Amino acid sequence: GAYGGGAVLALSSAEPNEVRIPQQYVGWIKGAGGAQIKDIEVRTAAHVTVDQSTKDQGYSRALLYGTDHAVRAARQLIEGELSRVMSRDQSMGHSPEEQFPTPAAAPASSPSQAALASVLSLLTAAASGNT
What we know:
single chain, 131 residues, alpha+beta, three-stranded antiparallel β-sheet, 3 strands, 55% helix, disordered N terminus
């Protein structure tokens, strides 16, 4: 199959090979055209698939395949991204307009997004150069 022996290795490994992603963040984790998933795969050497069969229950599952080290690294990246975007959403609240009445205050949340976008574009450019 497409996964080779990696799936067996991950299933028998000590590392949990699944990360639950709240459904509203699946698009963020996947990235535009799957770019963020590809980035995680390039950075960790793990294979990542997103199983959305549980989305009616409010979450999807990122399934991670590879060596213990690769699975652990991919899980840490995904959990790090999730906690970052979730804490950003919590700090902004449900109605950002109330907390940030003036446009001048809005850019406070943008530098990390801008940095992430530039890192992703660099990594995407580097990855497409390698293929």
